Amino acid sequence: MSATSSTFNAADTASAPPSAGQAGKAEAKGGLGAARARLRTDLLIYFGVAALTLSAWWVSRQGWFTPWSRTGYWLGVAGGVSMLLLFTYPLRKRWRVTYNWGASKYWFMAHMVLGIMGPWLILLHSTFHIGSTNAAVALFSMVIVALSGVVGRFLYVRLHADLRGEKATLAGLRSAMSNQHQAADSRLQAMPSVLEALHAFERDALENGPARGARHLWRLFVLPIQRQRVAQQCKAEVKQRIKQGANEPAHGQNWSKTQAVARYRACCAQVDDYAMAVQRAAQFQTFERLFSMWHVAHVPFVWIMVLCALFHVVAVHAY
After folding, report:
1. Over 226-243, what HEC string results?
2. Which pLDDT tens digit goes with each residue over 70-124?
3. How far is CA 308 from the centre of its chain?
4. pLDDT at residue 235 in the model
5. Is 23:274 a contact under the CB 8 Å cutoff?
6. Which three-class secondary structure state does DSSP give residue 297?
7. 10 Å Cβ neighbour count for 229?
8. Kind plus residue range of the DSSP H or E element containing 148
9. How far from 251 is each of 3, 69, 263, CA to CA, in Å?
10. Span 279-289, mean pLDDT?
């Protein structure tokens, strides 16, 4: 058997995942499949929020009720209660007695659902009409808080292990990247140009790049484009090398089409996982910084919304 064919077979044996469980762990550590799953979920949430907003606006145009009717009143009550229940999630994180009251991911999922349904019910209640300055401030504060919550969820899942509540760490992401680095070195050892391109991408992402002030923006917007470009170049090189191996006689035998396709897919998956692990490790501090800034902007609007909503409820029942 030729040296190239032997190298590919040995590398496939050494780096192939022995179990589905280990593959799942690798994906949770930042594989391309996990990134695509997060993107699909994000898009689904954005579409759902837009659809609910449009549905509230459509209902308000039908004239079925007013904010002062019985239906409008109870929609407001349901929305207000939903918004109050939102505070159970941060309280659950801070009260030691509630630590064992179910998994954190279920609390967070309930928090997200309430954070969407509460504003939707309030929009239905208001019928997109503002009756007073206080109601206007409360409504716009709620809209800002709801949109801010969507942004917060986007940042949260990039700093945590999905919705389980376990915060990722830079050391953990660097370790996952190192594992992908070693796996790539093993699987792609017959393709030095591919490895060099991936290693150069890692150096650029973690060590080089713009000055510190602009580095966060570069890692957030430019790095994903650079990752895709490098991955496509590496896959093209992989395809060429696989074709060479498939056409190379190996003691009178050539690779079958099925074997060549399997090797190509395995190598491409390794390229994607390695590049994505580098991107996640590089972007982690950027997302941490954005998340801390988000907290600073989010909390004041929450308290403005609460105070104005309380004043609105008191005014409605008093007058």
Report:
1. HHHHHHHHHHHHHHHHHH
2. 999 999 999 999 988 988 888 887 777 777 787 777 888 888 889 889 999 999 9
3. 32
4. 94
5. no
6. helix
7. 11
8. helix 133-159
9. 11, 86, 19
10. 86
* Count of Cβ atoms closer than 10 Å to residue 165 Cβ: 15
Residues 263, 276: Cα–Cα separation, whole Å: 20
Residues 206, 195, 225, 273, CA torsion sign: negative
CA distance 234 to 161: 28
Name the H helices within 62-132: 70-85, 88-94, 104-126
Which amino acid, 92? R
What confidence score (pLDDT) does residue 4 get?
A: 41
* Residue appearing with tokens 């909503």: 309
Q: What is the pLDDT of residue 169?
A: 66
Classify residue 227 as exposed, middle or buried by CB count within 10 Å of its CB (0-12, 13-18, 19+). Answer: buried
Q: 160 — phi, psi (to 5°)?
A: -125, 165
Mind listing the pLDDT tens digit for each residue in 42-66?
888 889 989 999 999 999 899 899 8
Determine the pLDDT at residue 23. 36
Q: Against a cut of 0.70, is the pTM above it?
A: no
Which pLDDT does position 16 carry in this prediction?
39
d(CA 10, CA 314): 74
Could you give the CA distance from residue 259 to residue 267 in angstroms, rounded to a whole number? 12
